[in-house]
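Protein in question passed on here:
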Amino acid sequence: MAIGLTWTIDDADTMTQGEIYGQVLTRLGEENPLIVALTADLAGSTKIGAFQKKHPERFFNVGIQENNMIGMASGMAEAGLIPVVSTFAAFAALRSAEHVRTDLAYNRRNVKIIATHSGTSFGQAGPTHHCTEDFAVMRAIAGMTVIAPADAFETAKATAAVIAYDGPVYVRIGRSFEPPVWKNLDFDWEIGKAIELREGADVTVIACGWCVYHALDAADRLKQQGLSVRVLDMHTIKPLDEEAVMRALVDTRRIITVEDHNVLGGLGSAVADVIAQSGKGCVLKKLGVQDSFTPAGYPEDLMHINKIDADGIEEAIGEVMKRDFEQDEDWEDEI
C-alpha cells in the first residue's frame, strides 16, 4: 500500500512521529474505506484527529473509555473493518492490557494500536504517564506484533505496513520532537527485519525507537577514536530479527541493547533470549530504565539519567570493550 505523501528532513524538524502518522493514516483512509479510527478523548494529543477532519463518518471518540474502545475495535474488525485505535501508551498497554489480550489477540482481530507518549517521552507528566512496561506486556501476548519506529519517517513506513498486515499490531511512538534518523522516505522498511545503519566489527549496538538516533551519535563519536561500532535499528521487537542478532553475536561478540523501557522484558530481554538459546557466548549489556520509576522532567534529561542517550551509550561501549571473553572460533562445540 503506497503512502502517497512525501517529506524530507526539513519537514522532520517540525513534524513529530504523531503528526506524520496522523497524515499517513488520513491518506490511507482515502484509498481504503475499511479503515476506521478510534480514540479515547485524545484526538488532538495523539494526532489521530487528522483522520477525524477528513473522514468524520469513520471516526469514533469514545470518551475516557479505553477498555470499551478496545472492545468496539474488536467488534468492528470482526465485521471486516480495519480499526486503528490511538491513545497514550500507558492507557493502551497497561489500563487496557486484559482487553487487548482477550478481545484482540485471543480472537486475532485485525486491529492496529498506535500508542503515543510511550517510554519516558511524556517526561514532565511523571511516572503515572510514563510507560516503560509496554514492550514486556505486549511481547507476552500471543500473536501480537510489536513495533517501535526510530523517527517520523519510519513511523510513516510502519503505519502503511501495519495497515497492510493482517493481524493485531502494537506500534509505539513518542510524544514529539524525535530527532530524525533518516533524511527522507527513500529506504526499505519491513516488519521483522532490522536495518544495519552502521557497519562495525568491534561491538554492536541494538537500539529501537528514538534511542537509535543516540546510538548513531555514539557510534560516530567513537569512530573518530578508531572504534568500529555496528548499529542495528531493531524497529520490530516482536517478531525479532534473530538472524541479525546472531550475525552481530558472531561478528562482534559484544552487544549493547538500548531502549526507553524497563530493562526487564523489552528489547534487551528479547535479544538475550536469542543469545541464550543459541548456546554461544558473548558480552551483553542492557541499557534502559533499570527497574525503577523515572522522575518527572524533560525527556532529554530523563534519557541522560537513564543513560540511554549518546553519552550513556558511549560510556557503556567503553565498559564492554574492557571485558575479556574466551577466544574460540569453534562455535559448534558450545551448543
About this structure: The mean pLDDT is 92. Residues 17-31 form the longest helix (15 residues).
